[in-house]
Amino acid sequence: MTNGKVVLDGDDMRRTLVRISHEIVERHDGSGPLALVGIQRRGAVLAQRLHLLLSELVRDPVLLGQVDISFYRDDLATRLETPEVHATEIDFPIDGATVVIVDDVLFTGRTVRAAIEALFAYGRPARVQLAVLADRGHRELPIRPDFIGKNLPTSRDERVNVHVVEIDGHDGVTIGDAESAAA
């Protein structure tokens, strides 16, 4: 079921998402709509979960979307394999909105950079914030999350794996060896 050391189990993930949802509400100033945009795939699942939690906490509707960053990656031309493309669904105006980008793991910052670029193809939000379940460090770009579930000090030789019921059949976050994860 899991390879590597478990750092968050299903209950830990649920509690972490509840905390992040409360932090988002506390920091949202109420000017303009609030939108969550999850990065495909697991970030989109986490955004759906946060959306349910936020909908219980705020009176105004919280917008929900998802973005695929496959064609916004800075390594697209050098990748050997064809990217697996998923749906981008942003069917609401983002102009003037506070958009919280949601991802599972923040590593180098390149995925978030691509998500911001993709987001701006849809309009000009008033503010863009970042919520991540796990921040493992090793940034290559000046990207910093606004909402962090768990800081995970890791080496570059390790891999952080996020599992969600909707895709993997169970919830949890593990840290394992990068080589065994690739196999």
Automatic annotation (TrEMBL):
<comment type="similarity">
    <text>Belongs to the purine/pyrimidine phosphoribosyltransferase family. PyrR subfamily.</text>
</comment>
<protein>
    <submittedName>
        <fullName>Unannotated protein</fullName>
    </submittedName>
</protein>
<keyword id="KW-0805">Transcription regulation</keyword>
<dbReference type="InterPro" id="IPR029057">
    <property type="entry name" value="PRTase-like"/>
</dbReference>
<dbReference type="InterPro" id="IPR023050">
    <property type="entry name" value="PyrR"/>
</dbReference>
<feature type="domain" description="Phosphoribosyltransferase">
    <location>
        <begin position="19"/>
        <end position="145"/>
    </location>
</feature>
<keyword id="KW-0804">Transcription</keyword>
<dbReference type="Pfam" id="PF00156">
    <property type="entry name" value="Pribosyltran"/>
</dbReference>
<dbReference type="InterPro" id="IPR000836">
    <property type="entry name" value="PRTase_dom"/>
</dbReference>
<dbReference type="InterPro" id="IPR050137">
    <property type="entry name" value="PyrR_bifunctional"/>
</dbReference>
